[in-house]
Amino acid sequence: MEQVSFGVDPGVVKAVIGPNGAGKTTLFNLVTGFLSPQAGHIVFQGQEIQGRPAHLIARRGIARTFQLVQLFDHMTVLENVMVGRHRLSRSGLLAGALQFPWTRREEKEIRAKAMEALEFVGLADRARQSAAVLPLGLKRMLEIARALASAPTLLLLDEPASGLDAVETERLQDLILELRRQGLTTILVEHDMGLTMEVADTIAVLNYGKLIADGPPRAIQKNPEVIAAYLGTDWQT
Amino acid sequence: MTQPRFFNCWLLFAVVAGAIALCMDHDYYYTLLNFIGIHTLLVVGLNLLLGYAGQISLGHAAFFGLGAYTSGILTATCGVDPWLALVAGLGVSGTAAFLIGIPALKLRGYYLAMATLGFGIIVYIILNEAQGLTGGPSGLSGIPSLSLAGFAFNTPRRLYLLIWITVGIILALSANLVDSRTGRAIRALHDSEAAAESLGVDTFRMKLKIFVWSALYASLAGSLYAHTLNFVAPSSFGFMFSIKLVTMVVLGGMASIWGSLLGAGALTVLPEMLTVFHDFEVVIFGAILMVVMIFLPRGLVRGILDLYEFRRYKREGGTFPV
């Protein structure tokens, strides 16, 4: 990637679009610390975070989902979301083994917050099932619930609608809109233009690792360069 | 893991262990049970690492040996109190695991297996060659028994009490651990390191923690072993024993606390029972392992539960969800 520069204001839903191989997922991996940039800066809440380990970036409050769903398959739906509370809880290995009173208290809180996140995405009744047996649509919801459980300041969604049917996409759209109402800053990589135009405040367009446009949905739809590179001439709202 | 069933398991454990304590009349059986107990400590520790965290160790016998020899040398040669020696053993094994773990746990899969295998072989060679310290291949004798407030654990029956109370405590701690914040983080990194990292889990640190923790179990087992036999020799801590421990984990069931107990039990008792076959002992042992793994690939505990579920489904005329 080169010469990509844009900002995301707090409380805004920013979409990143572009053809396959444009560098959208690479961008996510750079922001979340899964890749280190050779040059350039990534600033989060006034501090440079580029090149820092992924878990440390996560602890600052950047949560993400994955293009290919990455659930903990050997754990229950609830346990998956409970891992989301990791950065906000403290109990270590010894406390876990010995179960001190405060460990139990913390555990109770983790469970309650995880259930809250499950209820938010509508998966509460599946809490005790194995995460592996969920259909893809619900797996994506679970991944979002898990990210939300970590109470992120910034949420990165990597193609959350891919593989979803119309009904599931509709539910996803409602969910993102609800998060926007609640003021959660979100960056979204998505190929589903209907969804993107509906939920995004601004859209950045990448092509071959370069930023070719950045602006509100209406302007992006009319941008000739974007139409040529990605949207195609037959794109209508 | 539902709460009532879990509780039943502990009740069952206490009742069975208690009943055995009252009913057995032959020292041989207590000796066998004591070995099952010691093996259980090793297997549950290795299961935390292998079954839950998904990190293999082919050198676990080394930590068992470090615990046994630290206890043995400090008590028999230096006259240190056995309980203090046990704690020292934990220190030695824990430190060794920490130092080995830092480079080794950066590796994955086969490479981690090779690194831990190498460590196991190095420790085995040291136990053999450092004759002044360890007594070499002929072993180290004169290790005193453990005693508590004048009560010496020096007969199989008394040792049974000590070992199985320890096993009960360790099983409880382990069951607690896998259901805790750290336990979930460890299980999470097994399934997806990327997702675990993305939620703030320092996967390398977690691996190192559970590696050291698992080595502590092995060391505790080693110290108990040394004070049970009052004698240690390097041959008990070789590569083959490490492999046997992995087999016990897999047979009992990966990521299963109770499976560890069953796997250790089955693979400790089976060779004893097979001695009637003389020369064919190993062949039949291998055949039994193959049959079990083919028909119960998820291990004894889960396998038996699966069979039970399967029968129930058949009875109710439903289809079995695989």
What gross morphology of chain A would you assign? globular
List the total number of helices of chain B: 14
| CATH domain fold name of the domain at 1-61 and 152-237 in chain A | Rossmann fold
Distance between the termini of chain A: 30 Å
- Sheet-strand content of chain A, in percent, reads 5-15%
Q: How many helices of chain A in DSSP terms?
A: 10
- State the oligomer: heterodimer
Residue share in β-strands of chain B:
under 5%
Question: Could you walk me through the main structural features you see in this protein, from its secondary elements to its overall organization?
Answer:
The complex is a heterodimer of chains A (237) and B (322). By secondary structure, chain A is of the alpha/beta class. Chain A has a domain at 1-61 and 152-237: 3-Layer(aba) Sandwich (Rossmann fold), CATH 3.40.50. Helices cover 42% and strands 14% of the residues of chain A. Chain A has helices at 24-31, 54-59, 77-84, 93-98, 101-121, 136-149, 166-181, 193-199, 217-222, 224-231, and strands at residues 13-17, 43-44, 47-48, 62-64, 154-158, 185-189, 202-207, 210-215. Chain A has a 6-stranded mixed β-sheet, with helices on both faces. In chain A, strands 2-3 form a two-stranded antiparallel ribbon. The model of chain A has no long low-confidence stretch (mean pLDDT 93). With 322 residues, chain B is an all-alpha fold. Chain B has one domain (31-315): Orthogonal Bundle (ABC transporter involved in vitamin B12 uptake, BtuC), CATH 1.10.3470. Chain B has a two-stranded antiparallel sheet. In chain B, a hairpin with a 2-residue loop joins strand 2 (147-148) and strand 3 (151-152). In chain B, helix 3 crosses helix 10 and helix 4 packs antiparallel against helix 10 (203-229). Chain B is globular. The mean pLDDT of chain B is 90. The A-B interface holds A 32-34, 53-56, 58-59, 63-64, 66, 70-75, 79, 82-87, 89, 91-93, 95-99, 103, 106-107, 110, 146-147, 150 and B 173-174, 176-177, 179-185, 187-188, 190-192, 194-203, 209-210, 213, 255.
